[in-house]
Design brief:
By secondary structure, the chain is an alpha+beta fold. Helices cover about 25% and strands about 25% of the residues.
Length: about 290
Amino acid sequence: MNSRQVVQIAGKEVVLSNLDKVLWPKAGLTKADLLSYYASLYPYLQPHWQGRALTVTRYPHGVEGSSFYQKNVPPGAPPWVEVCSIGEVSYVVANDLATIIWLANSGALEVHPSTYLATRPEVPSYAIIDLDPTAPLGFEAAVEVARFTRELLEELGLRGYPKLSGATGIHIYLPLAETSFEFSSELVRQIGVALKSRYPEKITLERLVKKRQGVYVDYLQNSPGKTMVGVYSPRPTPYATVSTPVSWSDLEWCRPEDFTIKTVPQWVQARGDLFRGVLQPQSLDPLLFSRTNS
């Protein structure tokens, strides 16, 4: 392939380079594969990423090389890249495919859209229940606790939507009506407290990794400055897994390695966007916290 080429995406000029660079050596996947993935998935990820501040993890030499976390828009960004300033950080905003392709070309393998819209950084769009199994536990333990979580959410009358982290964890999104980060964080903390009271040997709320036993319910991910890997984002795992939404019943059979940048496009075309319900806010009962502890 040519080392450098220019493409037009919806009237915007995007410079592509080193398309044959291998990013996932064990899977034999290149930058061209990554760009192709984003082009095919964009109609599905666009509603979830659009208008959100992006934090990315860049792997300029592939997943086996060094990486760095990037919040500020990098120098030399094309003039058409939309930027928002929140505090002292100037973030890229994901409003079109050209921006996503430009980021991917720079080695941005992992994308973390903000949990808020850039125009309203004080209002979370959803709360996230992050189920993180403590080693030596793995994905099966996260699935078991996800099942417990679903039962509790049904008791509370709440809608939750699971996605695989792309590693061993599971993220459950609760779409929110107008609320605050303080509320969303406390909501998930109380859910974690309720789960631990029911399954004390299975669940932990311990922040120190060395003291954890069981599956960690991480409610701190709901703080304003925290980020979560975005739905449909690739991960820097050896085989290019993707953080993929699944149905509750899918959790009974699926495995993280089933969902890669090669397999997810076909999966989504067949199943549609299983995360579309996250785009529909739900009201929260003001007595929720007392009900959680009952």
